[in-house]
Amino acid sequence: MAMQPTSPRPLVFCPACNGPLRPVGRMPVRRDAAQAGIVTLAQPGDTTPAVGIDVYRCHDCGRLELYDHEFLLPSF
After folding, report:
1. pLDDT 10s digits, 37-75
2. Do residues 54 and 9 touch, judged by C-beta distance below 8 A?
3. Which of the 8 DSSP states describes residue 4?
4. How many domains does the chain have?
5. Which of 5, 19, 59, 75 is least crowded, fewest Cβ atoms below 10 Å from its Cβ?
6. What's the gap between Cα 5 and its chain centre?
């Protein structure tokens, strides 16, 4: 369940306060749960495929934002 590193992304701004979002890392999400419309973290030992979601935190207000830059999650 190793998450592949991604290339640096352009600076993103917080939709709440327009402050700069800083990358926190990647969060492994179970692909089958995402298909059901919920976000479930992948656990060690899961046999279900996981995809990496990029996590950002606003430097000003602390808001967290999740981004699927590589469009790995299914669209609804």
Report:
1. 677 888 888 888 888 889 999 999 999 998 888 888 777
2. yes
3. P
4. 1
5. 75
6. 12
What domain range is 31 assigned to?
17-67
Cα atoms found within 13 Å of the Cα of residue 17, Cβ hemisphere only: 12
Determine, yes or no, domain membership for 12: no
Token pair, residue 20, equals 């700069």
Is residue 3 situated within a structural domain?
Answer: no
Instruction: Check residue 35 and report its DSSP letter.
Output: H
Starting at the edge strand found earlier in the chain, the sheet holding 12-13 runs 12-13, 20-30, 50-58, 64-67
pLDDT at 71: 82
Please give the Cα distance from 40 to 16 (Å, whole number): 24
Residues 76, 69: Cα–Cα separation, whole Å: 16
